[in-house]
Each structure stands twice: as structure tokens, then as C-alpha cells.
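hiii, so i know i said id send this last week but things got crazy w the move. better late than never?? heres the sequnce for the chain we talked about at the cafe, plus the structure i predicted for it. fair warning i was half asleep when i ran it
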Amino acid sequence: MKKRKRNDVINSGLDQVLGVKTKMKIFQNAPYWFILPLAIIFIALVCGTVYSQTGNKYDGFANVGVDFKGGTVLTVEMTGIKSGDKNKAVDSILDIITAEGLQVTSNQSSGSNIVIIRYPNSVIKADGSIENLNTTDKTPQMLTINSNLEDKITLMLTNDYGADKDISANAELINATASSDLIKKAALSVGIALAIMLIYTAIRFDFFSGLSALIMQVNDIIIMMAFVIIFRVQINSAIIAGLITIVAYSINNTLLIFDRIRSNSATVKTQNLKFIPGELVDLSVTQSLTRMIFSSLTTLLTISILAMMGVRALTEFALPIIFGILSGLYSSLFLAPSIWGTLMTLKLNRTPKKLKTAKRR
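okay and structure toks below
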């Protein structure tokens, strides 16, 4: 008789009971599914290292916005100015900001009359050196600069477009303390969401399902951030919304697989078949494949339209979610079931050993 290959899953006859003619080989190839995520993380580390080198056009390992590293958010309202004059007015505003030695990192419109401009709390001096004002002791100096900017921008727009226009400029300072507080709240929000997912999945299914789902949630977040680093998507407050969205969305596909595994496990018991984790994984993924792909493609289509609208704020929000959805689909199909099957197999293999030891005693 020919020996069975090591990576073959023993057939208990469950596929015949369920009427599944062909099934995907997920569990047999479990080690290979981890190559792609590891490769993406490696590429992100390489890209980040290159970006952080001095002498290039990039600034730092990742494109961190002022929301997280500190800076100023300048909101200019220009109600009454014609849409044709708006671009010219924005260019004049940017010229005033640059003349103060400040470097604009983002410029986006909000509605038809509001422009939001972000810049770090640092000033470029005449000799080319940069003075960091993002510290507590330098806060009064940065407040003075922002106050002068508000006055200059308001005066310029009023002189150019008339005093009858509703014009205002408001600069909100985000110092190091505020940005640090935002990072802590973001980490706490994501941590709470992950903990709730773990508890819910463990109670509804089993502990190994909860552990597998938690590992995959962390994986999806890491992969999403890896793509953000690779493609230099700005890391700002929209990232928090993106992270929470991905944590909530990607768990759905994972729960769909585990729900199918639970249903097939019940069939194994009622039919008095042998409980084989690897076979359950392969059959459950095969049964859920079409539904998961269609569901993810529908969501991807919608969020891709937002990314292609040409509005920078929407693009910065949509791109991380696209990365997260793709990572979530991959991990739900290949990684989470493989981890569950491995843990369950190890548990079953240890149980006979414990029984033999007890009998010897």
C-alpha cells in the first residue's frame, strides 16, 4: 500500500454527506498562506527605511499627518467668493503661509466655501534650518504665528474680494500633548474592539475560534498599515475610523467560516463520523467561498468609487479600507481557518497522550 502524503487530510466521508464533490486544499497548505503577509510586511519595512533616509523627498518612515505628530489645522471660510475665484484665493493663502516659513502638508476643500490647510508646528529659517515649535514651551510662539496668519489671511481676502463677503480664518493648534492623547485614544479604541471580538467569538463558538479571529484582526491591521506605509497614504484622524471599520468588517467573513465549521461539526456528531479538523476547514471554506468573494467585491466596488472621486479626504479614508478589506478576505479564507485547524489538531493529538499517562498511573 502506498503511504499517505503528510499534507493530505484524511477523509471521514463528511464531503459525501454534505454533497461537496471538490474541496479546496486549505489546511494542507497552511504554512504557505503566511508567506504573502510576511512578504508585505517586509516590503513595508524596506520602503519605510528608504523613506526615512535623509536627502530624499520623503519625510520619515511613514507619512504621519499633523493629527498624530502635532501641527496646526487652519480652516478658512470664504462664503460669497465666486467658485471661479476660489482657486486663486487658495493660492494666495498658501503664499502667505509659505512666507511665514511654514510648510503646508495638506490642502483640501470641505464643501464649496471652506478650505482646510494643515502644516506642522515648525518654522523654516532664512538659513534653511528648521525650528521645532511643537513643544509646550514653544506653544505661545506658535500661537502668535497662527494669530498673525489669521489676521493676514482675513485682511487679504477682504481687500481682494470685498468686505461684504463672509470671510473668516481659524487656526487650531495641535501640540505634542494633544497628538499624544489622540494616539492613546486611538490605540484604546482599537484594543477595546479587539477584546470584544475575542470574547464574543469565544463565547459563540470556542476559545480556539476566538484566538484565531483575534490573531487575524491584528494581522489585518498590520497589513493595512503596511500598505499605508508603502503607498505613502497620510496617517491622520481618518485612519482611526478606517481601523475600526476594518476590525468590524473583516470579522464578518471570519465568523462566517467558523459558523460553517460549527454546523459541519454538528453533522459529524449526528452522522457518527470521525472529527477531523483539517477536513472541516477545507469543506467549510469551500462552502463559504462564493458568498465571501461576492460580499467583499460589492464592498470594494463601493469604497473604490469613493477613492476615485478625486477628493483627498475621501481618498485618504477609502484607501486604507480597501487595503483592509483585501487583507480581511485573504485572512478569513486562508489564515484563520488554518490556525483553528492547527490548534484543534494539536489539542486532539495531546488528548490520547494524557489518557495513556492516566492509565499508567
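btw The chain has ten helices and six strands. thought thatd interest u
miss u guys!!
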